[in-house]
Amino acid sequence: MSKTLYFRFTAILAVGLLAAFPAYAGGGGWFIKPLGLMLGGAMLLTILLT
């Protein structure tokens, strides 16, 4: 069970980084960063609480 949790966390982290990189490169980081942090925090809470 902890192995799947670790896999899901790693996958979400990788997808988040891949999604955030073009946004930072394009200069939209000031808008994407807080949004990404909120989404990431919500995802982490959801994963940890289930």
Structure summary:
By secondary structure, the protein is an all-alpha fold. It contains two helices and no strands.
pLDDT averaged residue by residue? 71
Quaternary state of the chains: single chain
**Intertermini distance:** 11 Å
Q: Total number of β-strand segments? A: 0
Structure description:
- By secondary structure, the protein is an all-alpha fold.
- It has one domain (2-49).
- The chain has helices at 2-25, 29-49.
- It is flat and about 35 Å long.
What's the arrangement of secondary structure elements?
Blueprint: H1 2-25, H2 29-49
Helix pairs in contact: 1-2
Q: What are its keywords?
A:
50 residues; mainly alpha
